[in-house]
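Re: the 650-residue chain
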Amino acid sequence: MNYMKKINAFFILMFILFTNSLVNINAIDTYYDDTSTAGYQQVENLDTRSFYNGILYQKNIGNIITNSGVDQVSYSMLSGNLNEDTKVVTYAYQANDNSFQRASLSSIAFDYEEKHPGWKVMGISNGDQFTLGRGTNLGAEGKDPYIYQPYYPFIADGEKYFSIIATGGGGSFVGIKNEGVDPLVKISANLSQIAGLKLTLYDENNKEISKFNVNELNKTPGEGDVAIYSPYYTDINGTIPNIDASGNNVFLIGNSDLAYVSNSKEYTQIFKGTPKATQATDGFYGKGLISEIGTNFSVSKGQFAIISNDESLNEVLKIGGLVRAQYEYINEDFNNLESGIGFHTVQKDNGIDQPVAGLYNTNKRPRSLIGRKIDGTICLIVIDDYLKSYGTTGFGINALLKKEGIVEAYQMDGGGSAQIYVRENDKFIPVTQSADYPTPSQQRVVLNALLFVVRTEDISHKWISSDLREINLKVDLIESYGKDIKNLYIHMNNNYYLVDEEGYCKITNLSVGTEFKYDIYSENSLGEKNKTIYSGVASSAKPSPELTGFTYELIDDKISFTVNIKDSKGAIIGEQMLVDGKTATKKDGKYTFPFNLLKAVPIVICNYNLNDGQGIKQKSFYLFGQINPLMAADSILSKQSLFIKEIYIN
């Protein structure tokens, strides 16, 4: 009977364990793409960070489940709602030679901040695919030189840098409106939607004052017409020779902000091995100040000239006047976009997965996307190579998008380009692994990017000094950029501390030798405190090390000292003993040396840092008197603290 009870108990236990395992499996939600080809299961959240204005960063690990098995992938996502103080923008690094240049995401972020005072980058991901500057079919191997440019149209800061794409014609891109619950605009801008090359004039405040049609690029204008002249690639050697611009009224922009012919009817790129002569299209962008007026100029790379037979235009063009020439769209909604960037595929539209086709999308690879949730939240997503799984397929993307509740998504450049960087104080740190490099510290260069940026004040802050229970900070409001700021506060240790009119803030009654994180808050005229993007770390001072005693021991012809130094907060960063000018090294907590060296007072020298703003100090503890081996240990100890010498060494 007892035997049967044990068997029954065993089977009941097995049934309970099996049932629990089924419950645990079923407890993991699985999100499938619309075709049920792939499913996604969340495994672990590795990192979550909240940034300014509600921008959120998350890094997750999950399983992509298909008929072929289970792949574990990692993905990072930046998300936030857009408004006048929080935007997603496009940007590319501008080189010193009046062109765009491939750069790391951190370089692109720093360049954006430098050229956009009052805006700070919270996170950045890679953007569109891009040409490599020379090659057939836009690849790396070939004979046809052209400037660095994205595959598809590119708009940044409202500037239509590339309305005409490298292969001629228009192209598809997604515009970003930075407002409302539907901030993304899918645009297919073929040549029929290009209004032509337009010349815009600006006043001294960079406000648009007038716009004129440009009738020709690098061709003599007719009566009453306007032409732009700028040099371009003319042969497979990759040279850009000067071009002559002659006429009765020629206006030279000799030191432009940017000037380049991205496409030319005279020299056409080869696409898929066939010259597209029948579809050859001019492409140009130029902006800068008029430097000279005359009848003939030799225009070099990075310059452009206006030849005008339009008297109304001639009357308003003048030296020092700011002008811009770019190809614009018929649809003014397109022209009014601040940002626009090309995409590889539409991944999800109106909540519906789009067809997954082609080897690029059916094979696994790292992926990068921009997407929108139904409430208007914008998401930048990168499925990276962190787990060496080499990303996922288009089906895996769609399963993951369903898990995140994303109803509209566009795939950016993938592979090694797929990366996200986030802000840490004044640096940009990679949080994804590029497939092209073994470690995240190696930065993959790209041409353009998508950036989460916030409007913010400019504040400088630094930790200047400390005492045992006190920290002193210097905080200065450099520029408010129109924000209502009456006071600044340090938020530390769950308390707010007012920054005085001179920019100083003293924080007292702190724990000794303790590190504190602080955030800077601004206060408006209504008394409302708002957290800024600025934060830091400061420490109260540590107690100075003190000698509390020592003992010694005679072992054959050697003497060994054990020195006791009180250092409760770990201020000491280095310690050694000097005996008659020679150094004794501590081993197993003791200083041991030949007894015959003991001809002078042993000195214990400590290098230490109290975190009081005075840097590293040095303190010397002199063990008293000439040591006689016949003296008793207690006699030495009774005289051990004759004096202590302290030296500052920076």
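The two ends are 85 Å apart (CA to CA).
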